[in-house]
Specification:
single chain, alpha+beta
C-alpha cells in the first residue's frame, strides 16, 4: 500500500511527518534530531559558565576586603559552570550577613543580593547572546 506525504514540519529539534494512506488513514511520525540534545546541553553549559564568572566578577567590588583573602576564597571555591558560588574563608558567612560596611565604598554585607539587584538585567542580556551564538 503506497503512502502519500501530506505535510512535513521541521524544527531544530526534529521533524514531524504526516502521511495519508489509500484507505484514508492518516499516520503521523516524529523523528527527533539526534544532535539537538547535545547541542542544547553544550549551550546551557556555556550559559552557566558565563553566569558564574559574571557573578564573581560583579561581586568583587561589593565584597568586604581587608586582605583580599575573602574575594580569593570565592574565586577558589567556585567551580565555574556549577551554578554555585562558594566562599571558602572561615569567616565568609559572618561577613556576608553581618559586615557593617565600614571603610566607605560599596563593600559590605549581602554582596551577592546587591550585585543581583544591580546587574541582573546585564547578565541576562549577556547570557542571551551566549545561548544565541551556540
Amino acid at each position: 500500500m503506497a503512502q502519500k506525504r501530506v505535510f512535513q514540519i521541521s524544527t531544530p529539534r526534529g521533524t514531524l511527518y504526516q502521511t495519508k494512506g489509500q484507505n484514508g488513514t492518516v499516520k503521523a511520525r516524529l523523528e527527533w534530531n539526534p544532535e539537538f540534545g547535545q547541542k542544547k546541553a553544550q549551550a546551557f553549559s556555556k550559559a552557566q559558565e558565563f553566569i558564574d564568572s559574571e557573578c564573581l566578577r560583579y561581586c568583587d567590588p561589593l565584597t568586604p576586603r581587608r586582605t583580599g583573602y575573602l574575594i580569593k576564597s570565592g574565586q577558589l571555591g567556585t567551580v565555574i559552570g556549577s551554578g554555585e558560588m562558594n566562599y571558602l574563608a572561615p569567616y565568609a558567612r559572618r561577613q556576608y550577613y553581618e559586615n557593617s560596611g565600614s571603610g566607605g565604598g560599596k563593600r559590605g554585607k549581602l554582596w551577592f543580593e546587591r550585585m543581583k539587584a544591580a546587574k541582573k538585567e546585564t547578565i541576562k542580556k549577556g547570557v542571551a547572546n551566549v545561548v544565541k551564538d551556540n
